[in-house]
């Protein structure tokens, strides 16, 4: 009996030592941590205001108490504005594709094979200004001595629905090639919003379907 009491005492001592070791592993609490043990109020610090209580102020009254009819009208107006923008963008795409299909198929292939953006952009700046400002009787004269460059120039003219012819001009001992550009009598006077350079860049980036470009 005395032996069993001795074993029980040893087990109790071992348990207390183990418990003491566990307590010593826990670091001391800081002042903030101790105060946190007594939170929420009235014992601890004041609670932070919730998002709902923060909106319960006068500045939000107009938002909370908006008339349902006005809200529906505002939503419909936003939808209408979005659809108008979308239809405008779609119209620009259609106009650009229509202009592209005016270009001769061999010239379209030349643009796809070797697109020279700086050269084409230079042609476009002059031609767009001519379409916007010139009368039907005026003629725009541009010079391109390289045969491939002239091909691209004629392609730009076709994109903008213009008539272009190339003639030879003699200056001293030199024979220069000049391209005369005129407006069609019954041509469309509106400029495509999307330029040929932009159209070709979009095509290079995969924006247009291949079948659209090949038509």
Automatic annotation (TrEMBL):
Protein name: R3H-associated N-terminal domain-containing protein
Domain R3H-associated N-terminal: 19-113
GO function term, MF aspect, one: nucleic acid binding
Organism of origin: Ambrosia artemisiifolia
